[in-house]
Amino acid sequence: MNDPKYQEMIQFLKDLGTDKTPHSGKPFMAHLISVFKDLKRWGADRDICRAGLFHSIYGTQGFQAFSLPIEQRDQVKELIGERAEWIAFLNCFMEREDFDSIFVEGKPDRRVINRETSEVYQIEPQDFDDLGFMHLCDWLEQVPRSQTWDYRRDAYQAMAKYYGGIALEEFDRIFATAS
């Protein structure tokens, strides 16, 4: 799957300076591209690959070295599409502990709590599944460089088991090298 907007998206990110922002032992832009390519390799659809490329565009609970102002959401939506931006937005603002508990405890909830506003978003099951799939891919791309093997490990393992297939294979492959 070749994305006809790939070069335009990359130029947008470069113009923001993501290639000069450090993230997990490499430039932020390189991490974003790696997540995009991994999601593509994992079989994700175009929206989710694009969401992966922009997964932390507004900053996240754990990454604040770069943050596009939320007032620019419409610009991002126009570039990557509404659904891709929605998934990226959720990833940026979700309260990680609550999200993790859904997987670890096997809760039926399909919600995301905004860590800044406490707003609760009840989301469609497919959006929830795609968000978690992308979120897991993002972490697995960076964990070998971070050497933070135990960071939310139970939650990521629960996500990998929930998705199975390549997600579980990649989790097992990466964590087989944990020290």
CATH homology-level superfamily: Hypothetical protein af1432
Overall CATH architecture:
Orthogonal Bundle
E-strand count:
4
**CA-to-CA gap between the ends?**
36 Å
Strand ordering within the main sheet = 1-2
Question: Would you tell me the overall average pLDDT?
Answer: 91
Structural class: mainly alpha
Chain oligomer state? single chain
CATH class (first level) name? Mainly Alpha
What is the helix fraction of residues, given as a range?
A: 55-70%
Number of helices: 9
Q: What's the helix-strand series?
A: HEEHHHHHEEHHH
Number of domains: 1
Q: What does this molecule look like?
A:
- The protein is mainly alpha-helical and 179 residues long.
- It has a single domain (6-175), classed as Hypothetical protein af1432, CATH 1.10.3210.10.
- The protein is 59% helix and 6% strand.
- The protein has nine helices and four strands; from the N terminus they run αββαααααββααα.
- It has helices at residues 6-15, 28-41, 46-53, 73-80, 82-93, 96-104, 125-146, 153-163, 165-175, and strands at residues 22-23, 26-27, 111-113, 120-122.
- The strands form two sheets. It has a two-stranded antiparallel ribbon. Strands 3-4 form a two-stranded antiparallel ribbon.
- A hairpin with a 2-residue loop joins strand 1 (22-23) and strand 2 (26-27).
- The model has no long low-confidence stretch (mean pLDDT 91).
